[in-house]
Structures
1.
Amino acid sequence: MSTHGTPGAGPVVYDPVTLPADDNVNAYTFCVELKGGQWFLQKGKMIAYYGAIEFNGIGLGRLDRLVRSSFHSPLHASDWVVAEGSGKMLLADRAFDVNSYDLDDGNLTIRAGNLLAFQPSLALKQSIVPGFLTLIGTGKFVAASNGPVVFMEPPIRVDPQALVGWADCPSPFHHYDHGYLTGVLGGLRAMTGFGGVSGEEHQFEFAGAGTVLLQSTETLMAEAATGAVPPEPGVPGGGGTAPGGHGPQSSGVPRLPGQLGDLQRRFGL
Amino acid sequence: MNARTSVPPLWQTAPLGVRSGWVSTHGPCSVHLPGGYFRSVAMFRLQGSKVLAVDMTGDAVKAKNGSMVAYDGQMAFKKLSGGGEGLRGMVTRRLTGEQMTVMEVKGHGTCWFADRASEINLVGLRGDKLCVEAGNLLATDAGLRTGTTFTGLRGASQGNGLFTTTVEGHGQAAILSDGPAVVLRVSPQYPLIVDPGAYVAHQGNVRQSFQSGVTFRTLLGEGGGEAFQIRFEGDGLVYVQPSERNTIAGDV
């Protein structure tokens, strides 16, 4: 065996045998074991792997069937890749905390920027809440958070920046601290800033039964595109109600995969 | 004089830098020298995971310039131009872009080092060679030789230039990483492939080759996201951080 690093006397040295299978290596690194199977992962989150693993963009024809069955958000497919082969692969995201979650015939909605990877036995769909994605089915997924994740049960009001996602409960709604925001004093506060703004006048409120996932800081992770929605009336974020000037080509709307342009993003600039 | 008066907290009272067990929940800890091998060298130990404490008894360490955060006892800090490698080393570093501003710390007592709250990983060297980017090297035992070596395309794909810093000899070194590094073993039957942005350092008798997955699909924007990879083969250890630097291959 190698002479480097005697176990027990120094850093833990991992090899393909001692790396955990589908578990955390430390709080910031997750190890996925592939045995001829597939995993979806966000582009660029793989940090190292043992074995023979191939990474393919989702637009690839061969993966069309897989995309059809477990990737229902085709308009941001260019941000995702499929890893397939056999071996062990390490995932990490900018030294944020990563955790894996098991869904057993369940559903979970998560902020798009937090989702790192998922098993194809889960189906990924765009949530109608903008910026969120929903995972449905049975399987494992890996999510990052800024600080460890805390699980809470509704009824609860949470800070918008701390919300990571929710499972099994209805979508949240806005809650405003009306007593503080309205009235003469409230107006004065809002207009002048005098009297103090606590920064907590607005929350997301959850009702029903389920679980709410919170991160332990209020620093959001970078947003990830969730794809455009069809420009139909009645679709939130679709812009369908405004006549004219709101097509898929209008600025600020994510592109279709395979479309040319947007070179900066492709080259990481 | 008061070198030993600074009693470390109870959870860290292992003799001279050797920490037994796992106190911190993450990150590699200290490495001690093989049994019976004790000379008067500075002893490195981690205090938490982001501060390096070095106990010195008249000996010296080389450390990144300005990384001292505290010391007790008596210390002298001397800037070493060109990393203490002499004129030739200085010129080489200039030419290769692997400039290090290094200071020599010498004295009696304990000196604490840290750099921008980066995680610190201790590496024990027993005659083998550690390759690390100059910017990720925090401190080395003064007895270790440092130099510069050509890395080829791996360095280029990391945006770090074509050269890297080597550390050789017997002793300890401390390297920096963004998030605690994972130490992965490379053996002949298990080669390892690493993302250039997550690579921190490697140690031992390891060959690296550059592997590219650029296809026409990459150019169409349908790439696999992992177009550039470094493949390690041989026998040694690779340090990988749970974060990716911005590389030219970032999103390809």
2.
Amino acid sequence: MRADAVLIALSLLLLVMAIVCVCNLRATALDLMEQARAAQDLLAFDPDRAGQEVDALYRRWMSVERRWQFVSIHDDLMEVTLAVSEARDALDCGDTDAAYMALTRTVIALDAVLHKELPTPGNIF
Amino acid sequence: MLTMFIRALVLYILVILLMRLMGKRQIGQLQPYELVFTVIIADLAATPMGDVGVPLLYGVMPIAALMLCYALFSLLTLKSERARVLLTGRPSILVSNGVINQQEMSRQGFSLTELMEQVREHGIENLHEVGCAVLEISGQVNVFPVSQKRPATPEDLRIKTSYENLPLHLVLDGKLQKESLKNAHLTTAWLEQQLSRFPCSIAEAYYCALDTDGVLCVQKKQESRVRFAHALDPKEVCW
């Protein structure tokens, strides 16, 4: 009885932890995607501000990635890191087209991470 | 490589912890839902153990889900008769008073050869000597002989027996077993006094036990003989 109660408490604790992690991951991923899209929009009109935006995205992603390594597949996270790095490098070289493409890849990679973690019917079954 | 080592340690400790929480039953005595838990848990723990690209939580979370199911099923089987029958099944009586229950035998997929093997394992040669054979939910068959064929007990022979319990181990390899001494309401001084009769100290004793007849059994270290001495009145035995 007592062992069962301990097991139930432990597993519920882990379940709550997982729910909090997934909710947090979802909010952060949507925010990062929004930031990447905003940088994409700025590319056509103001490449300098777009560059600042991509720098901010890169720094934020680096701190987020460290936390996400506990809850997401590392290869998927690497995809995002590569795409954000490419966007930053392309803007450093003044290649806005390449930066646009890299930001699109960033959004897609973030979306892939998010959709793998969400318990959607498609993911479950 | 170091990561894999640490991961393996973490998962191994987790699985051991869960198995300890499951209790002392062995594989053959597990209920179906317990067996499934045991089989799956090993595989779940192995996946993140070998792949460092997968977070450790990917292994821990499914184990948590199984843990929840296991604990809930365990509670259900404890509280509800219907749930117990549904999750674990019922014991089946295969032989009653020497007569084989053929319907139950075919329902359980139990052959006559298997039944005979089980009967012989219980020291019974003739099936008609079986009073009752029960196929337990763990898959084990318990066979009881008819009353005329079972060994006679002191009760059958109207012999009065004294109280018997397991002997208390007071010293094991020179180390005093304080818990045993406490259970017998005895003191270290009493034990030392008793051992001095041999003569022997606690540190010199390899094995020392006290049975419910009050007899102290002592074997000294580096000695190949066991010595006995009456140390306690059986009326004073309290464990």
3.
Amino acid sequence: MKKKNIVVIGAGPAGLTAADEAVKQNMAPLVLERADKVGGIARTESYKGCYFDVGGHRFFTKFEKIATLWQDLMGEDFLKVPRQSSIYFNNRFYNYPLRPLNALFNLGIRESCMVMFSFAGSKIRPFPKEETFEEWVSNRFGQRLYKIFFKTYTEKVWGIPCKQIRADWAAQRIKGLSLTTTIYNALFGFQHSKTLIDEFDYPIKGPGMMWERLLETTKEGGGKVSLNSEVISLNHENGRITDATYTHQGKRYKIAVEHLVSSAPITALVTMLKPQAPKEVIEASRGLSYRAFIIVIFIIDKPSLFSEQWIYIHSPNVRVGRIQNFKNWSAAMVPDSNLTSVGMEYFCSEGDDLWTMPETELVGLAARELAELGLAETDDIADEFVLRQPKAYPVYNQNYLNCLGIIQEFIAGFKNLQTIGRNGMHRYNNMDHSMLTGMMAIQNITGCDHNLWLVNEEEEYLEDEKNKKKLQQLIPERLLIGLFGRMDKLGFATAIGTISALYVFIATLWMSIKSIPPGIPNLTFLGEYFAGYTMTVNGAFIAFPYTFFYGFLLGWMFAYIRNFIITLYLFYVRKKSEFLSIKDFMEFFR
Amino acid sequence: MNHKNNIVETDKDKLFRGVLLLNSGILGLSLGILFGLVIFIATNWLVIKGGDHVGSHLRLLGQFFIGYKVTFLGSFIGFAYGFAAGTLSGALIAWIYNKFVEFRN
């Protein structure tokens, strides 16, 4: 049987998974990678025997296929790592995920009170219009919490003031669960963050090990991976990519394409096409942008610096955004247990002052900041190394959805072209999402009909709905609404008032017509509470309005307190859910 | 993403605008058991405690619940009466409440 001529652009997680899947499906893929090593933006670099994970990648997935693939590839070389991370702010280290006692201790009683007041203030006097990220977060968590835990880090990551980030963007990224799902989750103890996992897997010498193994399986299966091969043009005709031209070691090569799977940045893909893409598509690709980052790596002559795998730096006094301690991911990341390697990560944009800063200045800046944070002394630095990673994070700016939509529509017009991976789809795909898109793209070639754009898009929503359906079988929604619905105060008060009044009325009438022997308890004590009450027919009529009034009051208070407690509970679970989702949002940059 | 926002809105509507309706059967049964148990326990508590005038106040119930006495046997009779009165009260409360809610909405 003739093998399909499949070309994959990029040897990152998505491209290599596509190649691996292709050989499993008896195809012969050719992977063209511009860089000199595999792994793309999830690669592992090495220097003097130390390994450095570009960005810090945790291996955690809910996709069974991907989990199995990881396990098959790594076997014994997959470590279980308990997560340890913290936030540095105002000379203090806060546990991350936040723990109430630790946060209280670090903030101090005064600041904690201020946080509470600020939170209350945001409820009493919220920003009338939620136009910016700052207003959106402040209205939900208060100005003080916003400044401590959101402002600086978000600004470092995006490189623009939070006042310039649109609120609808934040609302879109921080998708709240439906209220009933939130309650179901709270009732059944499923209320947890999507990303704040306690434990993750990690290859003993960094993610690069996995990409190397995928490279081996691809080659063993008859596929080819060509490094230092940059695709420069893609010819197309009648809605099909016909051939690809790439350069390798200074020479140009042209190959026929039956199917093209691209993990190259979608903006670059558009410019590769010949004939050129329509003007509006080119314009749309210009509307998409990326954030880059620089890692200044220090090899420190000390066996240990701190216990965390990474620390988020929220302090505005320093420019570093996150610090990785590679040894804490896996001890095998350093060749000597007396050494420690740290990565000072600076978020930037290609061409800005950080990006263009000479290496010596970058090293100087990072060394100063490392010392300023009290993590290591400049004298302890044994060696250093600078890594620049362009196009690390696709930017979700105001127009990205429109721009991406135009490109998506254009690409959909090609019968033999699929885009995969984080940059290939301009989406915050984690490794597992990216790998799944690669796998699915190949399955589409074999006749499946997967919509790759739904990976990581509907996943959370579908998962919530799936959980919700399961739980609905245990507690129908009708019952849930019955439990948490508002109790009509007036209705309940009237019912209690009426029934109590009737009881006392009938009891008094009954006692008044019965002859009561002396010494037997009777209802005359009611006269102490109801002025004018006697155990007579008249007394029964006097008791009726009194009892109704007291019963009414009691019923109204009961309903009021019940509603109040339910509202407090709903507020609590809602806030907790919002807080968890906003934490997930902060974790996008990993 | 609109479809999801719509779902969030609908859920909110259901919970925040929805008014609780009482199930007369369940409320009746609950109050019936509660009343019955209160009388049963209160009676036996006094019986076990003993003294010269056992249940001088609780005896009042005997005026309404024919056959009830502050004795061990009486506690069972009291339970039956309490259960009946509680069930009736609960069912009536729920019925009046639901009618009221229905009328107001």
